[in-house]
Amino acid sequence: MERPNAWKAYEEKDLAQVKAIGEDYRQMLSQGKTEREWTRALIARLEKAGYVNLDQVIAENRALTAGDKVYANRMGKAVLSFHLGEDALEKGMNIVGAHIDSPRLDLKQNPLYEDADMAYGDTHYYGGIKKYQWVARPLALHGVVAKKDGAVVDLVIGEKEDDPVVGISDLLPHLAMDQMGKKMSEGVSGEDLDLILAGQPLKGAEKEAVKATLLQILKDEYGMEEEDFISAEIEVVPAGPARDFGLDRSMILGYGHDDRVCAYAELKAIEGIDHTPKATVCGMFVDKEEIGSVGATGMRANYLENAVAEILNLLGDYSELKVRRALQNSRMLSCDVSAGFDPLYASAFEKKNAAYLGRGVCFNKFTGSRGKSGSNDANAEFMGKLRGIMDKNQVRWQTAELGKVDVGGGGTIAYICALYGMEVIDSGVAVLSMHAPAEIISKADLYEAVKAYQAFMLEA
Ligand code: MN
Ligand code: MN
Predict the structure, then answer these.
(1) What is the C-alpha to C-alpha distance for residues 45 and 66, in angstroms, rounded to an integer?
(2) Which of 6, 212, 226, 316 has its CA 20 to 30 A from that of 366?
């Protein structure tokens, strides 16, 4: 039972769409490298598609009705969108949810030091990374600095053509005999992921003269003092745009496909709905998945529940029971990337149950590790229904699990949403080099994900 490659079936009009969607996504991925930047970009597009801020609707106590579109902004790091359907909300929603945070390095709260006439920024990594992949490559700084007076300064350094970049040094091979003999997990330590930020001493400065240069630049360009790092969130990410990949341009190489490729597919599917859907369509774009969905902007926080309560209230139909019913009766695609089969590392996969680049959107009945531990094991009945919807809409799809039994594992937001009692299954795009600074996806799989998510939104 092998799933066919999607490219083989494409006609001219499919290929035009694959190309257009791929390019729109490539640009959005190049411009957004943090959860904050994605939240901002998503809201801009949702507003263009007619969505209004739920907070504003609440403040004006404006009644909502079928066909209305609202979004909820969670602290600038997560967004929920709702396109209200004809059916009562208590009958459940068709929910698609992806995460918009990606593995990276964060500057520490007290990051700066000077050593050997260089100014450094100390980092703490976020999410699951292979540390050796982050040295000897151009890096950029993206983030915010919150001042004591409440002002918040945005900062992006290293993305414009003529911007400087920063980075982490690695040891020359000539002197790396000890390092090269270590296990890969120990070759570069987390505490050694320190960024070089400056190298020219400030004229006239007595001690730490290079750090003084850096502080001078931060003051002049961002009005920032060293103490302001305490209330800053500065993310260190790979510099430069995502690129078409392969001589045939069939793929995209970029930072953060996990899970912005699925977030983009959701957005594109949402934008394409031009009529009032039968069931309410909910899009979720959440933060903190890479560190366990914790915190006020992670999926474990109750914002979905709260937003549903607010919407029921504005529909004039609120009760605690109806909130519970709306959630329990929902159907959800937990949209997250899947590990693409890699022939160079074939022993990590079981070929019959691996995802392949180019074979379409992927459904994972379960994730987890060992004996499915920590997974949401979707119901067969739900998968059966989805097969029907996908085939009817000519979506090319495949199924997969994350690697061979007992070689590792991973999780998504699926099991958290399943706590409400709703039907949930994982569905996403296959990625090569997942969690690396440059990940690879196939444009065909992105196109199929957009089709799959829209079909699900309208028909689940
Ligand atoms: Mn993910
Ligand atoms: Mn991940």
Answers:
(1) 21
(2) 6
Q: Which ligand is nearest to the CA of 337?
A: 1
Residues with CB under 5 A from ligand 1 (ion): 258-259, 336
Q: Which fold has domain 6-102+255-459?
A: Aminopeptidase (3.40.630)
For residue range 297-325, list pLDDT tens digits in order: 999 999 999 999 999 999 999 999 999 99
104-238: CATH topology is: Aminopeptidase i, Domain 2 (2.30.250)
If you measure from the C-alpha of residue 161 to the centroid of ligand 1, how many angstroms do you get, rounded to a whole number? 30
Using the mean position of ligand 1's atoms as its centre, give its distance from the Cα of residue 439 in Å: 12
Q: How far is the CA of 259 from the centre of ligand 1 (A)?
A: 5
Domain boundaries, the chain: 6-102+255-459, 104-238
Closest CA to 134 of 189, 214, 199: 189
Angle, CA 439 vertex, CA 434 and CA 443 arms, to 5°: 115
Q: How many CA atoms lie within 13 A of 85 on its CB side?
A: 23
Tell if the pTM clears 0.90, that is, is over it. Answer: yes
| Average pLDDT for 404-429 | 94
